[in-house]
Write a structure and sequence with these properties.
Elements lengths: L12 H19 L1 H14 L3 H19 L3 H15 L3 H28 L1 H6 L5 H14 L3 H16 L4 H24 L3 H31 L7 H10 L1 H22 L3 H37 L3 H29 L3 H5 L3 H16 L1 H16 L3 H32 L2 H32 L11
Helix pairs in contact: 1-9, 1-13, 1-14, 2-3, 2-9, 2-10, 2-13, 3-7, 3-12, 3-13, 4-5, 4-8, 4-13, 5-8, 5-10, 5-11, 7-10, 8-10, 9-10, 12-18, 13-14, 13-16, 13-17, 13-19, 14-16, 14-17, 16-19, 17-19, 18-19
Length: about 450
């Protein structure tokens, strides 16, 4: 453990802020592409009908979970590669990234096959209506074929971020998002393939993005003389190193899955409203996560170079920007909370319930900005074990609260006008989620105030 009260010289602050912006701005534009995939799906599918939109809510929750529990392929790789860069070893940095790429490929094939085979029982866990369940299974089965590409893209993006390159993922994301919209419109409305057509278009766009990113990283590896062959021992070590972040992510995804399960139990209208609100939340989260990505890269590089003062200073700056950014996004959501629902569904009931949910989503954004930045800092520092334990504890505190919403939901729906009751139920659900974010913020803030995470060197 390293402790230090060093501070960064004042004349170094402008350069550090420019470095944060250099990494965060392209990361912002690249990160929002993923939720834009879902926003495009939600808008296109939402105009097919409420049942299809509710089905997308179930399928997207399952799909995102299947892919994002392996987010360590990006986050862990960013930290490891950035530390090697800070220590002055570019070749070792890229070699570590190639190990992550092979690991992602193997996991992706296995997970994709499992999701395709067990799509129906997975969707049934959400307890949605039979009509919504049919739509969900159709979407998830097709989407399963894109999981290997999703995981490979995660790993390669982590390598590039660790190398302090967030522009290349941006270019791939812009091209991928644009092609996704065109393909979805073609398959859904041109070829009349319904919800399965939307899934197919997204799979094709994701596969193209992954292929392009792999080409970039393999070229860089050849330039540095790094081997492209898999090294079983190093790939296994990469997998073992990622276990703490995997546990952390599993606990986080459990929170999101249980929340989606509670929404499904409230009926198709609340579930459809939750799907759109959750997608908008994800879009906002990815926007704020740009600073978390910069935090991962800069913290890893600074600690790899033994520069604790820079790590501390960058954390303070990004925390301030994260809270302010969350406030700005929250104001925008509040200002448009009655307009946004019209873009996603023609159903007046879903529009009304969604508007209620968006008020809570907007008010919570400053908290989200604080949480995401500190999460990125500690991931960049390689503090995965602590993050895993903390997330499990927060999950344990959240479960009784969200289960109480599940238990009281039927009474809220029965005691008032149907739409009003649905609005109250979805508001209670989102308020419970905000409490989860507050608990997470308290834990992360306590950790960041100490020095235990400030470990220097090329490896933690």
């Amino acid at each position: 453990m390293v402790t230090s009260n060093e501070s960064l010289p004042r004349d170094s602050l402008p350069n550090q802020r420019r470095e944060i912006l250099r990494l965060a701005v392209p990361a912002l534009l690249a990160l929002v592409a993923e939720p834009l995939f879902l926003l495009a799906d939600s808008a296109i599918i939402g105009h097919l009908g409420t049942t299809q939109l509710a089905g997308l809510g179930v399928a997207s929750a399952a799909l995102i979970t299947a892919a994002n529990i392996f987010i360590f392929l990006a986050y862990g790789t960013t930290s490891i590669v950035a530390r090697q860069v800070g220590a002055g070893s570019a070749r070792a940095a890229v070699s570590a990234g190639i190990d992550g790429l092979w690991l992602a490929s193997g996991i992706g094939v296995v997970v994709g096959a499992l999701v395709a085979v067990y799509a129906a029982p997975v969707c049934e866990l959400f307890d949605a209506s039979p009509a919504a369940l049919t739509q969900a299974v159709s979407y998830l089965r097709v989407s399963a074929f894109g999981i290997p590409a999703m995981l490979v893209a995660l790993a390669v993006t982590g390598v590039l971020r660790g190398l302090q390159d967030t522009r290349t993922p941006l270019i791939a994301s812009v091209v991928g998002f644009s092609s996704n919209i065109v393909l979805n419109l073609l398959f859904v409305y041109g070829l009349h393939l319904g919800i399965a057509g939307s899934a197919l278009g997204t799979v094709m766009a994701q596969s193209g993005m992954a292929a392009a990113l792999v080409v970039v990283v393999t070229r860089r590896a050849r330039q540095l003389g790094a081997s492209l062959r898999p090294h079983p021992q190093r790939v296994l070590r990469a997998g073992l190193d990622g276990i703490p972040l995997l546990v952390r992510t599993l606990a986080l995804r459990t929170v999101l899955l249980v929340t989606a399960w509670v929404a499904a139990g409230l009926g198709d209208v609340p579930l459809a409203a939750y799907q759109v609100a959750a997608t908008i939340w994800t879009f906002l989260a990815f926007s704020l996560d740009a600073l978390a990505i910069a935090a991962q890269a800069l913290t890893g590089r600074a600690l790899g170079a033994g520069d604790i003062a820079s790590a501390r200073s960058a954390t303070r700056t990004m925390l301030l920007w994260g809270v302010l950014g969350g406030g700005i996004l929250g104001i925008l959501v509040l200002a448009t909370h009655s307009v946004l629902p019209v873009l996603f569904t023609p159903d007046p009931a879903v529009q009304s319930v969604l508007a209620a949910a968006l008020v809570v989503v907007g008010l919570s954004q400053p908290i989200a900005g604080f949480v995401f930045v500190l999460d990125g800092v500690l991931i960049g520092a390689g503090d995965g074990l602590w993050l895993a334990v903390a997330q499990v504890v927060v999950l344990a505190l959240y479960l009784p609260l969200i289960l109480a919403v599940r238990a009281t939901g039927p009474s809220l729906l029965a005691s008032t006008n149907t739409v009003v009751g649905q609005g109250h139920a979805i508001t209670a659900l989102w308020l419970a989620f905000v409490v989860f974010m507050m608990l997470r913020g308290l834990a992360l803030g306590w950790r960041a105030r100490g020095d235990a995470w400030l470990v220097i060197g090329a490896t933690r």
